[in-house]
Amino acid sequence: MKITPDILLRAYACGVFPMAESAGDDEIHWVDPMRRGVLLPGGFHVPRRLARTVRQNRFEARFDTAFAQVLDECAAPAPGRQQTWINEPIRELYIDLHRMGHAHSVETWREGKLVGGLYGVKLGAAFFGESMFSRETDASKVALVHLWQRLMAGGFTLLDTQFLTEHLATFGAVEIDRDLYRSLLAAALEREARF
Prior knowledge:
Number of helices: 7
Radius of gyration: 16 Å
Strand order of the largest sheet: 4-5-6-7-8-3-9
Distance between the termini: 31 Å
Number of strands: 9
């Protein structure tokens, strides 16, 4: 069965997200972790050094001006990661979700060049962070700070980070079990938020 953007949105609403084994693998696998990384209102923390970087306006933050480019940068090999879970079918699905207004990018630019960013999916008052990249120190972290500010201003109640990493924990991300995650997701889907 071909996965369509509507099927993908229904999967997100059930707490499931897609991944591929590698860029060369045409198959899509559904992931439903027992434990989930999340950022919740009131729990976000900006490390002091990063707050200074944000205040200095070293990077220009933009939203949805280079979605496909952010997606491609997230899929590109990077130091410490030669493989990606973003294959061509996944890329096409997220491009379609972006056209439909459900997928968004946050980009950091420096001297007219895209140097960092992230993208994810909006559904109700939940935002599902998918991937991020950085070509300069702190570029993706600054994008995350701008994403959080946008989400809080828009009335979001859940930022799903999928997995908890050491990097995300420095921002206040926590790991919760599947049942609590689904409860928070259900509540977020009952609300509407503006990206």
